[in-house]
Amino acid sequence: MPRILSAKPDSRLIPLPWELPLAEWPTDHLVALPRGISRHVVRFIKVGSDVYAAKEVIEAAAVHEYRMLQELAHEDTPAVEPLAVITNRRAESGQPLDPVLVTRHLDFSLPYRSLFSQGVRPDTVNRLVDAMVVLLARLHLIGFLWLDVSLSNILFRRDAGEFAAYLVDAETAELHDSLTDGQREHDLMIATTNLFGEFSDLQAGQLLDESLDPLALVETITTRYRDLWAELTGVEEFPGTELDRIESRVRRLNALGFDVAELDISTSSDGSRVRIQPKVVDAGHHTRRLLRLTGLDVEENQARRLLNDLDTYRFRTSQQNVDESLVAHQWLTQCFEPVTLAVPAHLRGKRDSAQIFHEVLDYRWYASQRENREVPLLEATLGYVRDVLEGLPDEEMDSRPLAEGARQLANPFDPSQGFVDDEGAMPEDPWEIEAADMPEPTGVLDIAALRRGKR
After folding, report:
1. How far out from the chain centre does Cα 145 lie?
2. In this structure, are residues 225 and 133 in contact, taking their beta carbons and an 8 Å threshold?
3. pLDDT exceeding 70 applies to what percent of the chain?
4. Cβ distance 305 to 364 under 8 Å?
């Protein structure tokens, strides 16, 4: 009889065929979703209306990863949610089977190989890199030493014009009170080694844009990580006559999506010099503000975009002196909810609600410019559904039929087995085509630009 280790037990797991190796599970228990290549057997299993990821691994590794993912959940750090470890598994013959780690499938998430196989532009690669660097910095801030940093161990979700990165594999990780510079550099070295190999693999498979060089990409990652870490934790010293730089430092960190929980400020004996250093930096500045005002729990850049629209709504309705929470409720019921409710039910699996609202705002702006009038929000929503959303791939489930000319997996439940035919044209993401004429993103990690604008 299998044993289930879980802080939140799900009784629906009990009758599943744990006496079978995951590789032999019947397909009526499985869901074909995009995922990366893993050195372990991984399957997506459907339990009622929920989808879980199941990974077969030795017991010590399964329990360790379960504990690490629990710690990340307690720290509110982007990672998949651990549900259970299934141990004491035996085949019908009595032969012992490896335990299974069960995690909740991250809705609307995509592995990097799924993104690249659809043909991404160079600036999209830069956004993926930025998301990964922010995730690594967030982990290091809480003392989390990953020791297996790679794109294969990350899931990405669309976050307004950027991406948000989530840790999906913590087998080798360690949690410390804090990390030394040497530990961080070691993690960064592992990252650059793994990423160079992954980018080179994509290049060999003609999935990497010709303008992108694997070595240049990993050098960019190293530079951006060090710039971000210096901004988050570095010491800044300046004359006592420039005290406004204290507020500027905080604003720059807020612009990057981080809150300063503590700021260490010291002055020289004569007051001529001031020294500041963030002591504790928490990620999710805009996310927390939007959650407090509206109850919406979204990604950081989505929250930033929605808050900007909320501020615009407040200005247009001349409610600058009205309590912010009251205006937020009006915006939620008069702007956000009508947009999400206008999307047909069968199309809601293509993007999450906050991402749809962000893309509707983009569509509305371009439509207004094109038609030389202010297009109403609901009209823009209907146009967006017709012109954009209907043609986008479904990112919640991947049960749609293959597009004509698309490469077919040998086993849709196990991408590691490769394609039936290694040749064939790569499909393109319709949203990438639609976004081709949009302004290039400034890049969330453009620290130099932030410093120029916030000093």
Report:
1. 19
2. yes
3. 86
4. no
pTM for this predicted structure: 0.81
Q: DSSP of 9-25, one letter per residue?
A: --GGGTTS-TTS-GGG-
The single residue listed with the structure tokens 């500041």 is 276
Residues 141-153 pLDDT 10s: 999 999 999 988 9
Question: What residues contact 273, with CB distance under 8 A and at least 6 apart?
Answer: 237, 238, 239, 240, 267
Task: Give dist(CA 235, CA 337) in Å, integer.
Answer: 44
Tokens for 52, please give them: 């879980």
How confident is the model at residue 403, as a pLDDT? 44
What is the full DSSP assignment across 409-426?
BSSTT-GGG-BS-S-SPP
Exposed, middle or buried, 134 (CB in 10 Å: 0-12/13-18/19+)? buried
Alpha helices in 18-169 (DSSP H): 59-74, 112-117, 122-141
Q: Which H or E element spans position 291?
A: helix 285-294
Element (H, E) at 204: helix 181-204
Please answer whether residues 79 and 168 qualify as being in contact, where contact means their C-beta atoms are separated by less than 8 angstroms. Answer: yes
Ramachandran quadrant class, 254 (left: phi over 0; alpha: psi -120 to 50; beta: rest)? alpha
pLDDT of residue 404: 45
End-to-end Cα distance, the chain? 64
Tokens describing residue 441: 């993103």
Q: Give 316-347 as a DSSP string.
A: HTT-TTS-HHHHHHHHIIIIIHHHHHHS-GGG
In the block, tokens 């749809």 appear at 356
Using alpha carbons, select from 140, 134, 137 the residue that is nearest to residue 157.
Answer: 134
| Distance of alpha carbon 24 from alpha carbon 223, whole angstroms | 45
